[in-house]
Design goal:
2 helices; single chain; alpha+beta; Thiol Ester Dehydrase, Chain A
Length: 173
Amino acid sequence: MRWMWIDRVVELVPRQKLVAIKHVSLAEDHLHEHFPAAAGRDALPVMPASLIVEGCAQTAGILVGHAEEFREKVILAKVGKFELDRDAFPGQTLRYSATIQQMDKVGAATVGTIELLEYGAGGTVTAAIVGRIDLMFSHLDNNMSGEKFPEHNFVFGESFKTLLRSSGVAGAW
């Protein structure tokens, strides 16, 4: 995977829960297009909701992949529900929490929350739940079509391994 929409794993309870964070930074190119200044309007850089969904999917996908020691090629199969109550702006941090609801040989269902962390004076941090998401994942090699895919796990590549190692998550890879 080329694009990473999480910065660090901060909690992992194997086969149950994973929490990751994403720091929203004005250094990210996509923020300059959402939304640039226009006649009579200042720029309003905001994290696109589609990238927040992807951050949630990466968080939950790592949890599902970790459950089987990354032997399975885990792909997002369905976004069942997504709600987002507030936008995220540069300088804020998103905290994604994913929990496995059901898992079997063909895939997994997860639920998640999105929290917005804001940093105040004196090092205070406030957290508010701003979103919810239901995701379903497929174990690609156990798909019902019988389609065959390459043996190597192209889903969990070097970028994810680096992220996990730097977060202190041990792996069998």
